[in-house]
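Query form — protein ABC3 transporter permease protein domain-containing protein

QUESTION: What is the three-dimensional structure of this chain?
INPUT:
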Amino acid sequence: MKLLDLFLLALSNLRRRKIRTLLTVLGVVIGTASIVVMVSLGLGMSENLLRSFQSAGSLTMITITNYGGMGENAKNKVELTDDSIKSFESIPHVTGTSPSLEIYVTAKVGALQGDFSVRGVSQAYFQQMKLKEGTFPKKGDAELGLIYGNTVAGSFHKGNNWDKNYTIDPMKDTLFYIFPEVQDTSKNGATQSEGGQDKPQKKYIIKTVGVMEGSAEDYSEDSSYVYADLDSLKAFLKKIYKKSLVPNPKTGKNGKPLRYYSYDQAYVFVDNMNNVADVQKQITDMGYSCYSQVEWLKQAQEQIKTTQLVLGGIGAVSLLVAAIGIMNTMMMSIFERTKEIGVMKVLGCDMGDIRNMFLTESALIGILGGIVGIVLSYAVSLIINMLATGGGDMVDSYTGGGGGNISTIPLWLTIFAIVFAMLVGMLSGYFPSVRAMKLSPLAAIRNE
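ANSWER: The structure tokens for ABC3 transporter permease protein domain-containing protein are given below.
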């Protein structure tokens, strides 16, 4: 029997029992929609989590730290110097590196002031950033230019009153910057300024050349800092400080300030997030402490996978009930059509065609239920996302702050759901079809 004939015959048989077919299909619809919606919630959670981590910082960046490495505490520490940071570039899959030279400053404009850190970084770091306006400073620019994090401009205050914040425009306002005095450690442990006496603090006008992408409420690893080209910042600091590289220099084992840059933090950039773990391990083996967003992302994704399995399992129960319904429908169909099956056998119909007829009927039930179930899933998903739009903090806690849809149905899930529903239908109809194939022709004809 041709495939088209099987299809038309199966369709005709299902139409003869409209109510029973409709109820059986309804079971598949509910089962399919349950699985798809449950899985879509897990996928939405995963996508929002990924988006949240990406907004908080680059997933291909490794942060290396070396805090507290001074004096006696430095004995077991591996220093982060320009040369050691440069050596990380020889590690496979590393695309760039950047030291982080951090200086705490005070900026003033009119009656307002802001207190924040200026970070000197390399051009490789700037390549990971996005600007809302302005341009990135170039390597070794003669004039120091600053890039403002997107939350810094809104953190200014009046004097020592921190209760109320004010927003400035760093691209238009003229800001005066005050850098800290050099601190010399005396033998008795006290500190004093470089000149040995208090002097009026000098103010420096520094141009803002860019502002990072994002609103004042968008937090990321970069948002609360001001950035400058590393070489330009070093050159600027040399003009300010005569006897020291930085205002609060690290000391060596002899207690004297170091005459080279020893950084508390550095960054390594990797070509792909899948290679981050391997690069991170090699850096750790070299004696450095480091971390990356990928570590935390993988831990969170493992938890989400467990949640997805639970949600999918809940939906699978509905589809299991639907499979039992299909099997029951096929068995009842065989009992009602016993004489018809007997006549077909007496007329010489192939056993395989009889089996395929019932398999086609059950497959049609599965396909029809799967298609309608997908349509229902998209409708439910749309309603969930529309309701979630005004969900506020409760929705943000579910989505991990990613700001995307709670429910996401990709194309592969749509195709999988329809194919899976068809397979469930065929498996449910397999045993009834085999029973129909094995019926005795004479017994079937005599059946009333």
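ADDITIONAL NOTE: Residues 293-336 form the longest helix (44 residues).
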